[in-house]
Amino acid sequence: MLSFIAAGDPNRPLVVLLHGVCDAAIAWSDYIDYLSHDFRVVAVDMLGHGLSPRYADAQLRHPFESAYEAFEETVEYLEHVHGGRAIMIGHSMGGAIVTMLVRRRPDLCLGAVVEDPAWLNDEQRQRYVDNAPANAALLHDWASDPANAIRHNQTRRPNWPMEDHIGWAYGQNRCDPRLELTGVVSFAEDWHQVVSSIGVPLVVVSSDDPSDLVGVRGLEEVRAMGKPNLETVFIPGCEHGLRRTDIAAFNQAVTPILHRWAACESHVSGEI
């Protein structure tokens, strides 16, 4: 079972949030506040992150699949207690895990929003592996000096809310470094095949910054699939962490979709 933060009225529709690699549930704090007026919000710490268990040696042989299995188990528990299916929102590696969940377990999902998910091509996948040692060293430095990590992030991302800088630094401090050393942040399958096989409503959000993993081209490729359950949202001028780069634009685009999906589900909810 993974660690999670829960907020909002338990009788409202359930939204489950999953962060990216080297982040944590608490990094969604401003979004939890925003959503909890209308939803029961649960932000989950991914395996090896936050207060969730660290990776066992055997789990590191297939780190993405291990993270997926732990998340699926946790969602099953949350929905058993809540009494209804959840809306999923995932970012980066969390977006890749959510993508796989809606493909394998559509019975658990009302719909999903994936914020620049880690849908990787071969070049991107290799780049993560090649950069893993340097990223792990940087993770160690930031974990050793959180104050410096916050200053660095404030300089790089001045438009982020202060609480998000703090949450981000906490995530760096609470990430299993052995995961970072694998360089694995996504599933091995071609993402086009995965996405085209999904029948659950799925919205992919991305932008046009060089750091974006899906980007303009990926959004075009999703639209070209011609599936009515697939929607795309383009928010210009945002880096990979695009929700925190342009909070207002993200909320304006995504919030009506969440309410539309929630209206399709009736609830007999318990306490989470």
TrEMBL record:
Its EC number is 3.1.1.10. Keywords: Hydrolase. Pfam families: Abhydrolase_1. The keyword 4Fe-4S does not apply. Residues 13-127 form the AB hydrolase-1 domain. GO terms for biological process: acylglycerol catabolic process. SUPFAM superfamilies: alpha/beta-Hydrolases. InterPro entries: AB_hydrolase_1, AB_hydrolase_fold, AB_hydrolase_sf. GO terms for molecular function: monoacylglycerol lipase activity; tropinesterase activity. One of its GO terms (cellular component) is membrane. This is Tropinesterase. It comes from Bifidobacterium breve. The lineage of its organism: Bacteria, Bacillati, Actinomycetota, Actinomycetes, Bifidobacteriales.
